[in-house]
Amino acid sequence: MKNNNQMTKLQLITFIIQTQIGVAFLSLPFDIHKFAKGDSWISLLITGVVMQVLVFFYFILSNRFPKQDLFQILQSLLGRFVGKCLTLFYFAYFLLTGSTILILFVYIIKKWMLPYTPYWVILMLMCAVGIYIAIENLTVIARFYFIATIVLLVFIFVTPMAIKDGNIHYIMPIGHSGIWKILNGATHATLAWQGLELFLIVSPFVTASSKEKLKAVTLANILVTLLYTFLTFVCLIYFSGDEIMLMPQPVLYLLKSFSFTIIERPDIVIISLWIILVGTSFISYLYGASLAASFVIKKWKRQPFVYLTALFCFAFALFFNGEQEIEKLTKFTTNIGFIFLLAMPVFLLLISLLFKKQQRGNLNAKNY
Amino acid sequence: MKKHLFKNEQSFDMDESSLESRINFLKESMGNTEDLFMLPISFRDRKGTIIYLSTIADSEKIQEGVLFPLIKYQDFNLHDIPFTAENNNRVDLQEAVNALLQGKAIVSMEGWDDIFSFNTAKDLSRSPNEPDNEKTVRGSHLGYVENLTTNIGYIRRGISSRHLQIRYFQTGQYTNTQTAMVYIEGIVNPSLVEKLTNRLQAVTTDMTFSPGYLEELIEDSPLSPFPHILYTERPDRTIAQLMEGRIALLTEGSSDAIILPVSFFSFFQATDDYNSRIIIGSVFRLLRVVSFLLTLLLPGLYIAIIAFHFEIIPTDILVVVKNSVDNIPYPPFIEAMIMAFTIELIREAGIRLPTPIGQTIGIVGGLIIGDAIISAGLVSNIMVIVIAMTAISSFTIASYELSNTVRILTFPIMVLAASFGFVGIIFSLMFIVGHLCKLESLGTPYFSPVAPFDVQGMKDAILRFPIWLLKFRPRDLLVKNRRRLYRPRRWEENEE
Q1: CA distance A126 to A143
Q2: Is the per-residue pLDDT at B293 higher than 50?
Q3: Which runs of consecutive H residues, i.e. helices, occur in A70-209?
Q4: How confident is the model at residue A359 (pLDDT cuts 50, 70, 90)?
Q5: Which run of H or E residues covers position A62?
Q6: Which residues share a beta bridge with B51?
Q7: Where are the beta strands (DSSP E) in B211-291?
Q8: How many CB atoms are located within 10 Å of the residue B239 CB?
């Protein structure tokens, strides 16, 4: 019988893209502009390059453990107890990211589209969709993500229209912010790349050689980097530096200023489509968290943990939704993300290389 | 092991050799039904009987095929008589009962251990018509009839190949309905055949009278609103599907064939697409896909725009809409519900009534109610346009099942659109697409070739590519032989 829990390399590309592009997407130019001003796009390119280096690290690590997912790698490298503890940390991290996504999502939706709808109702809708899809196996999730990628095409086709009204002098002279500010901006952009760590979780389920996997993830990373850089670039030349300071979601303001013959306010349509992008990121983290949890508590299948995780994210999002809390939370998640996105895999790789540990075959990634 | 549903299954003690006891046994087994006829005969001074059910056996066939040869060839051995009735073979008593039920005539002789059965079943089928549900402009106008043998005959005539395989199943323990599974060996994935065989063998019911009754028992997720099984009354459509590597099921007494596994896009393919020119066929296919989306989303979009996002439509149109909506006493959602409900009523009434009255209903419903409801100020005229558009576009979908599904799905979308505007529509779309990704038809992905993506399959999904480009069969079926054609236009190179 064929394995029910597999994805193709094409699906791997869309999986990574969809997981990475989420809430941070709309406010990215604003967030980076705080640090790097007119050179924000350079910051994003730098982050992209750093992430590419990280992709290589991921690749080497997953190549040493071709049939194991992240949690099993943890266990093989650090022993049963420490491995499980770290898996729990990962679980907490996925929960935190999932909740952050929910909170930012509802915050923007309430601000732009549904100011009178109760907070918890929008949350519940998102959790329901999340559970509905995350409860399925990876194949179904990957299929869904593939279709969701169509949404990105809309962004790619609509935003270039702003270029003709842009003023290139806003970003001139290139590099005026200075190298340190640009680098500072680059470190703050990592939230937008969060999701790459899920490669280590899905990697054993991809039906492709490890080289093809590397190509796929590289391609995904390039696409995401270019998309981010492009969007930020457009925003930077469209709005002056002072204007961007006032706009937390510059991409939406950009779209709001267009109007077509049939659609007067494209931003409303676009923000509706953006919900799908957020949904896919949320589903990924639900999947990751439930997988981590079912790895620690082997007695249960993955499905009950999806419900639990979603419930927890729901409850968390219900209580932390003040404007200042959101800012703090975003900062906190970005910092924590550093550990789990960058530090942990590199640390694992080092251990694996130092102690020459590789997969010993018996503990393979299971299908849920 | 199948569990038997008969409560009072009797067994008889019998003396197999005596004619009397045999007849008694058959009589008893048939419950002394009054259409059981017995025709006493004599052959070389031996007494014998021809037994048959007069309601389904053809007495003329019995006379010409069984009785005349018996009289004519009195000096032959019984085994050597050239009976003209087909399919004469020897059976035991238990089999004789089944043979009787199939319209066969049983011949039993005194002093002979063998019982003969002859296929003398009455031809109860009607003459074939063009199917009403799947009309085409060009191509074959042949439709299935209610006779299994005839229907399979149509398929056999279409595919004259030794690879065409037919497997029979008995389903329904009282009705003993013959069900035939038809597939092409060498193309179809053998594991699909095995899977379907297992599912069919597990069916233990008192009756099956149509493939639709079987459908629920053998499909993957019966509670899904989307059809996973393609109904067709057209032999040519069946043949095309078989050639793609799918399996057809036909049952005795039903003029439908069901095709499985199917993908979502099979429901958009009409036979006419392939009979018309490439561009025209593609445009019409695209039209159907667009009309599917229109049916699904139009009422929801209208409600969302009026109730939540009126700022997205340009001011000029806004004025028109506002004039129309202003005097309506209730929110657009209620309006839409009234109209959509009315349309569903008219449709259902139109189907159940005889055709002439059905048309009257259409006129009364469409023209009179539509006009009156606007002038009474209950529903705005734009809403009438929206709902009427929705209804019409739902009827362009090539499958009756899918078009119903879509119209029903419109209602939850309307509810969500009325509660959350575009956000609600997007969420309902996510649910629907997620559901489509989950579905499987006989273990093959339902939403293929879109997800999982398959370039070859896409050529025949939303557009119809030129036939010479449809080189391979769809990948999701995991067929044994994917290649469909080999450079059919290579003559171009020679004609210079």
Answers
A1: 19
A2: yes
A3: 70-112, 119-134, 138-148, 150-158, 179-188, 190-193, 199-202
A4: low
A5: helix A40-64
A6: B38, B106
A7: 230-232, 247-251, 257-260
A8: 20
Residue A365 has what pLDDT?
58
- Residue ranges in B15-58 assigned as alpha helix (H): 19-29
Alpha-carbon span A68 to A204, nearest angstrom: 6
- Whether A264 and B313 lie within 8 Å, measured CB to CB: yes
Interatomic CA distance for residues A221 and A312, integer angstroms: 30
Please name which of A249, A66, A273 lies closest in space to residue A154, comparing C-alpha atoms.
Answer: A273
- Report in angstroms the alpha-carbon separations of B187 from B163, B460, B470: 9, 18, 16
Sign of the torsion formed by the C-alpha atoms of A162, A167, A172 and A178: negative
Asked if B455 is an interface residue toward chain A (Cβ–Cβ < 8 A), one would say no
Taking an 8 Å cut-off on Cβ atoms, the answer to whether A133 and B434 are in contact is yes
User: What torsion, rounded to 10 degrees, do the Cα atoms A74, A79, A85, A90 define?
Assistant: 0
Collapsing DSSP states into helix, strand and coil, what is residue B309?
A: coil
Compute the nearest-CA separation of B418 from chain A (Å): 12
pLDDT digit string, tens, across residues A216-229: 999 999 999 999 98
Tokens of B472: 């391979």
- Of A129, A279, A152, A145, nearest to A202 by C-alpha is A145
- What is the C-alpha separation between B463 and B460, in angstroms, rounded? 6
Superfamily for the A31-354 domain? Amino acid/polyamine transporter I (1.20.1740.10)
As a whole-number percent, the residues of chain B with pLDDT over 90 amount to 18
**Has residue B93 got a pLDDT over 80?**
no
Tokens of B255: 């003029």
Which residues are B107's β-sheet partners? B50, B116
Q: What is the pLDDT of residue A261?
A: 77
Whether the predicted pLDDT of B7 surpasses 70: no
Q: Could you give the 3-state DSSP secondary structure of residue A357?
A: coil
Contact present, B285 and B463 (Cβ < 8 Å): yes
Residues of B in contact with A144 (CB under 8 A): 433-434, 437, 451
- The ipTM (two decimal places) reads 0.92
Q: Which chain B residues are closer than 8 Å to A269 by Cβ?
A: 312, 422
Predicted pLDDT at A154: 87
CA B354 to each of CA B134, B341, B360, B364, B401: distance values in angstroms, whole numbers, following the listed order: 19, 22, 10, 15, 21
Contact A254, A235 (CB under 8 A): yes
